[in-house]
Amino acid sequence: MPKFSKHERDIIKKRLFTEGEKLFSVHGVRKVTINDLTTAAGISHGAFYTFFESKEHLFMEINLKKQQEIFDGLECLFYENKNRKPRKLMKLVICFVMDKFFNDPIISSINGESWKYLSRRIPPETIENNNINDAFVVQKLTEVGVKFNYPTSLVVKTVQFVFMLASSLISDEENQPVMDIIIDGIIEKIVEE
Known about the structure:
The protein has 10 helices and no strands. It is mostly helical. The chain has helices at 6-27, 34-41, 45-51, 55-72, 74-80, 86-102, 112-119, 124-143, 152-169, 176-190. Residues 33-52 bind DNA. This is Transcriptional regulator, TetR family. Keywords: DNA-binding.
């Protein structure tokens, strides 16, 4: 198989991201096949595997890119709300990120069950990159003066748990007050006043 130039690799990878996002958004990660992806991107199966280990790997890379775009939008939110009390700022940030996540078909498709499925099929460094992305939000909160009662790793896992729980409750509007109670309780416990 001929090697791709850097320019060709960039074009193919971008095409895989674009077509993968379309397919995963409509059908979900489990129903999309490698054949669907390669046909949509106009490449061979072998070429696909020079970029990604599996369709789940591509899915998570798309997810990480989308998360990063959301986190980039936090800069403005932090700047505009830097004088808020720590707990209010934490809730604002969680609600902002949650709103963005759950309005995105790729990110919102990840719940506890799908995370177990994905984590068995993706490279460990991709899981680590996901955790780094999640830690970014906690770091930014710390930089603007929010103090936590627990180590960063525990705060990150707690926030991840809230998002996993929220993803299973999102289908019912009556669950919004439940999420508010859970978020408020967790913030009260992990954020210093």
